[in-house]
Amino acid sequence: DAGITQSPRHKVTETGTPVTLRCHQTENHRYMYWYRQDPGHGLRLIHYSYGVKDTDKGEVSDGYSVSRSKTEDFLLTLESATSSQTSVYFCAISQNRDSGDNEQFFGPGTRLTVL
Amino acid sequence: DAKTTQPTSMDCAEGRAANLPCNHSTISGNEYVYWYRQIHSQGPQYIIHGLKNNETNEMASLIITEDRKSSTLILPHATLRDTAVYYCIVMPNDYKLSFGAGTTVTVRA
Predict the structure, then answer these.
(1) Is it true that the peptide bond before B92 is cis, omega within 30 degrees of 0?
(2) Do the chains contact at B44 and A43, CB–CB below 8 Å?
(3) Could you read off the pLDDT of A3-51 as tens digits, one per residue?
């Protein structure tokens, strides 16, 4: 299994509070991704990173920010959590980004509940 | 982006081959077909991908039709641990993955 860990694995928080999720990899892969998975919506990309300090928005980026100060760490921050951000969050990594060489390896996920 | 269509669910007997179909009739010439699966409560797992030639790895085989409008993932000897949701994806050129509903595969003893 790819060396990807996510922390915390479970979190319950209240509306309006800031939340930071961490993704840590030991594979030295250049690309890192944050997804959320919800019933009825499948898996959707929030943000991704193509290098240290290089990030870009995905499909559902509103209300989220990211930072990547080291190759191995990619942080996802909910500035002010809302109930609509209750979800399971997955981090993924890939070595390349070409269409034919973009195997993404996923972490175990973080289950976030916003009350 | 090319969309895919998969059956909602299918059953398979343990030890038998599982053949999972996927339609992707709007696929472009340079778009790859990827397969992932997700076992309950775990992160998605990459299985295999291909462009137009058939591909095989230690997990599965991927058969892509000559016109590339459909493909079949084959699990040669299904085990109970292969029970999962299987996702067929056409990798968009902007490499941003999104999964639909997939096929829920139940392997029965």
Answers:
(1) no
(2) yes
(3) 999 999 999 999 999 999 999 999 999 999 999 999 877 889 999 999 9
Residues facing residue A78 across a β-bridge: A19, A64
Give the H or E element holding residue A32.
strand A31-38
Segment 35-54 of chain B within 8 Å of chain A by CB: 41-46, 49, 51
Residue with tokens 């039709």: B65
Distances from the Cα of A68 to the Cα of A3, A23, B104, angstroms:
17, 10, 35
Instruction: Select the residue of B51, B97, B100 nearest A45 (Cβ to Cβ).
Output: B97
pLDDT (0 to 100) of residue B2 = 63
Chain CA centroid to CA A107, Å: 9
Q: Tokens for B86?
A: 């299987």
